Amino acid sequence: MRITRPRVAIAHDYLTQRGGAERVVLSLAKGFPDAPIYTSLYEPETTFPEFKGLDIRTSSLNRVRAFRSDHRKALPFLAHAMSQMTIDADVVIASSSGWAHGVGGDHKKLVYCYSPARWLYQSGVYLSGESAVLTRLGLRAVSTPLREWDRRHARAADRYLAISTVVQARIRDAYGLDSTIVPAPSCAPLLDIAVEAIDEPAVDRGGYVLCVSRLLPYKNVDKVVAAFRELPDRHLVVVGRGPEWDTLTRDLPANVTFLRDLTDGQMRTVYERSAALVAASHEDFGLTPLEAAAFGKPSVVLAAGGFLDTMVEDRTAVFFDAPEPARIADGIRRLFARTWSTGEIMAHGERFSESEFLSTIEQHVLDLARPAEHTRTAGRHIRGIA
């Protein structure tokens, strides 16, 4: 008897930036190469170039350049836009931190959740800064119907996967649903990409502490920069882009360098030549320390959120207990005061492989695609770790 493979589609909130969620979508596209990718917004010049060769299908909002330049301006409109996208597939993998789980169509829906929408449930943190005032006001006016829309579509999903323990708890709090934890893949594939040179003296010298982050207020990059004012003998290299660029790069200390729009080959270079990585935000998962671990580099991370799932204290990382410059500086000093096992760090990173991730996702897809009498036993809301 011939086994028919299910028709799979991928839905993602927006493809306008380079971050961990976008890397997950690229991994999903690798695992399901025939799957079209549905998204509200797509800006080829500001996300990963690998998307240019894929079947990307966008909403009507993509015609508005201002939304492609700053997706936060489109937040009040994204629910409706995603609801209007009807997908013809057997199974949709919704890669979601907001709206992708709301796509329409007659299909099974597998939600891979990075977090319930921050701008609905943590808007004070996510939408901080003067540039977000109008967006906050707009969301406040429609927050009640948006939450109702969000919860209705979340509860209509056939299965929920959470990226980490902290997100699993948020899903339960926001939607009353149980979920399975499936860690995201690390960036180990960067190890197979050729090194590309960067015209930057700090990178040439090497031995710096690396911070890879979108430049948003809640990422606490400003606190990391302030910490290095207390560490004149150490150099910080920050790689990222975002609305805080101008603020963060104004009046920098001499031992801090900012870079943006690096290719994957250049990212390999900055990781290889670094001594360690620092991350001070409350992360849903905590991908960048795993990226550093793929290169055998230890990290200094906030003892909260997803970092508690991805890092092991004193084996792969040093923890600090608050995103304050003095605590971060102390963590940097403690990291350089001890010896680290490169092999142990790399072995830990390999536990979060792309092949393991895709194998787990494929099993969930096949399970959902079975006849209803079989999938019913699997349940719509599942506990445990995959």
Summarize the structure.
The chain is α/β, with parallel strands linked by helices and 386 residues long.
What structural category characterises the helix and strand content?
Answer: alpha/beta
Which residues form runs of ≥5 with pLDDT under 50? 372-386
Major sheet strand order: 3-2-1-4-5-6-7
Main sheet specs: 7 strands, parallel
Count of distinct strands:
13
Number of helices: 17
Number of domains in the coordinates?
A: 2
Order of helices and strands: EHEEHHEEHHHEHEHEHEHEHEHEHEHHHH
Q: Look up the CATH topology of the largest domain.
A: Rossmann fold
Radius of gyration: 21 Å
The CATH architecture of the largest domain comes to: 3-Layer(aba) Sandwich
- Average pLDDT rating: 89
Beta-strand content? 5-15%
Task: Tag the structure with descriptive keywords.
386 residues; alpha/beta; Rossmann fold; 2 domains; seven-stranded parallel sheet; six-stranded parallel sheet; 13 strands; disordered C terminus
